[in-house]
C-alpha cells in the first residue's frame, strides 16, 4: 500500500510541475527574426529617443544578445517626462528648458533598467491574483500582472492586459505606480517585448525627483510632480502639495489619513483604480460646506467638457469648478447614493481654457465622498 501511495505522490508532483512549465511558456502572440534592439530600430523612428538612451547607457548589447524581457516605454513617455521636469523648473523659478542632455546619465541608466528583466516573462506567466514580483537589472523590485478584460457581458472574456508596476519599495499595492501595455509577447531572437501605452510617463513617478531633486522640496504645486492632463481623470486624493488655504481648505481636519497626512480626509476607495496614479485607490471624505481642494492641470484644448464626478454619500450636495479663481460651470447637484462607498456619477459641463492652470473643486454643500473627476471633450 505504501508503495502505491509513493508512486501516486510522485506522479501528482510531476503533473503539477509539467502544467506549470506549459503555463509559463505559452506561445507568444508574434515573433520577429531580429534582436529586440534591431526590432525597435526598424520601427520607422518610433523609438529613436529610446534607442539613443539605450546606446548612451551601454545597454545595446543587453538588448541584442542577452535573454531579457523588455517592457518597452515609447518615445512619447520620455518626452512627457522631460516636459514634467520643465514644468517643475518653471514652478520653482528656474529659467530655461532642459533637454535630454540636461538630465544626468546615471538617472537615465537607473530608470531605464527598471524596464528590463532577465529571462523570458510571458503575459501568461503573470496570471496570478497578485501578479508576480520581478527583479529589474539593478535589482529594483517590480511586479507584473496579467488580467483579462470583460467582453460581451462575460467576465474575463476580453483581451489580456498586462500591468507592469514599480513597487516603490512597498509591499502594499496602493503605493505602486502602474503602467499598462498595448501589445504583449513580441518574441525576438534574444527575448520578449511588451510595449507600454503611450500615456505611461517614463520613470513611473520617480523621474522628476531623480532628474531634478529641487522638485522634492515641499512647495505648493502638483502632488504627482507634474500637472494632471485634461481630458482625462483627476483623482480627488491627488490635490496639490502645499499649505492650508493654498492647496486646500478643509473645515474638518480630523478625518482619515490613509493616503496623505493633510487636513483633507482620505480613505481606501471600494472602486479604487491606481492605473492613472496611486491616488486613484483612494477618495476624499469628511467634507464640510465650503471645503475646497486645488489641482494643477494641463488642459490640452479649450472648449466645453463633460464633467463626471464619482461620488458617494448618504445625503446630497453641490459642487462647482473654478479655473484660476474664475467659475467655469454651474452647480453640479449631488444625490444621495445610500452609502459612503456606493459610487455613482454626477454630471455637469464646464468651459475650460487651454494650457496649465489651477483648478479648484469647490464643495458648496457637503455630505459626500469624492473619488475622481472625469473630463471628456464635447465636440461641436
TrEMBL record:
Superkingdom of origin organism: Bacteria
Biased composition (Polar residues): 267-281
Annotated InterPro entries: CBM6, Cellulose-bd_IV, FAS1_dom_sf, FAS1_domain, Galactose-bd-like_sf
Keyword Endoplasmic reticulum: no
UniProt entry tagged with the keyword Signal: yes
Pfam families: CBM_6, Fasciclin
Disordered: annotated segments: 250-281
GO terms assigned for molecular function: carbohydrate binding
TM segment ranges: none
Residue span, CBM6 domain: 257-376
Keywords tagged on the record: Signal
Domain (FAS1): residue spans on this chain: 33-200
Protein name: Fasciclin domain-containing protein
Upper taxonomic lineage: Bacteria, Pseudomonadati, Bacteroidota, Chitinophagia, Chitinophagales
Amino acid at each position: 500500500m505504501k508503495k502505491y501511495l509513493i508512486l501516486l505522490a510522485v506522479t501528482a508532483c510531476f503533473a503539477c510541475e509539467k502544467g506549470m512549465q506549459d503555463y509559463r511558456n505559452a506561445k507568444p502572440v508574434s515573433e520577429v527574426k531580429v534582436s529586440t534592439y534591431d526590432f525597435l530600430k526598424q520601427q520607422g523612428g518610433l523609438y529613436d529617443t529610446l534607442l539613443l538612451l539605450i546606446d548612451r547607457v551601454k545597454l545595446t548589447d543587453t538588448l541584442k544578445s542577452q535573454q531579457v524581457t523588455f517592457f518597452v516605454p515609447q518615445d512619447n513617455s520620455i518626452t512627457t517626462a522631460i516636459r514634467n521636469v520643465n514644468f517643475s523648473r518653471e514652478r520653482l523659478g528656474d529659467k530655461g528648458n532642459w533637454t535630454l542632455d540636461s538630465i544626468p546619465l546615471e538617472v537615465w541608466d537607473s530608470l531605464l533598467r527598471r524596464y528590463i528583466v532577465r529571462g523570458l516573462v510571458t503575459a501568461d506567466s503573470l496570471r496570478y491574483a497578485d501578479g508576480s514580483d520581478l527583479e529589474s537589472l539593478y535589482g529594483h523590485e517590480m511586479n507584473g500582472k496579467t488580467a483579462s478584460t470583460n467582453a460581451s457581458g462575460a467576465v474575463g472574456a476580453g483581451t489580456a492586459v498586462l500591468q507592469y508596476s514599480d513597487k516603490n519599495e512597498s509591499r502594499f499595492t496602493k503605493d505602486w505606480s502602474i503602467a499598462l501595455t498595448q501589445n504583449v509577447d513580441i518574441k525576438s531572437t534574444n527575448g520578449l517585448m511588451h510595449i507600454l501605452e503611450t500615456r505611461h510617463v517614463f520613470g513611473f513617478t520617480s523621474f522628476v525627483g531623480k532628474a531634478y531633486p529641487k522638485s522634492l522640496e515641499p512647495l505648493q504645486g502638483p502632488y504627482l510632480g507634474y500637472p494632471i492632463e485634461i481630458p482625462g481623470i483627476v483623482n480627488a486624493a491627488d490635490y496639490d502639495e502645499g499649505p492650508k488655504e493654498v492647496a486646500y481648505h478643509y473645515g474638518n481636519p480630523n478625518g482619515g489619513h490613509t493616503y496623505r497626512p493633510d487636513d483633507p480626509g482620505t480613505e481606501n476607495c471600494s472602486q479604487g483604480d491606481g492605473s492613472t496614479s496611486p491616488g486613484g485607490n483612494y477618495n476624499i471624505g469628511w467634507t464640510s460646506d465650503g471645503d475646497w481642494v486645488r489641482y494643477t492641470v494641463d488642459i490640452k484644448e479649450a472648449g466645453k467638457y463633460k464633467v463626471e464626478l464619482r461620488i458617494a454619500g448618504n445625503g446630497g450636495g453641490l459642487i462647482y469648478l473654478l479655473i484660476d479663481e474664475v467659475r467655469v460651470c454651474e452647480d453640479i447637484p449631488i444625490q444621495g447614493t445610500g452609502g459612503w462607498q456606493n459610487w455613482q456619477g454626477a454630471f455637469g459641463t464646464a468651459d475650460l481654457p487651454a494650457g496649465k492652470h489651477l483648478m479648484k473643486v469647490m464643495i458648496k454643500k457637503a455630505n459626500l465622498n469624492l473619488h475622481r473627476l472625469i473630463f471628456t471633450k464635447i465636440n461641436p
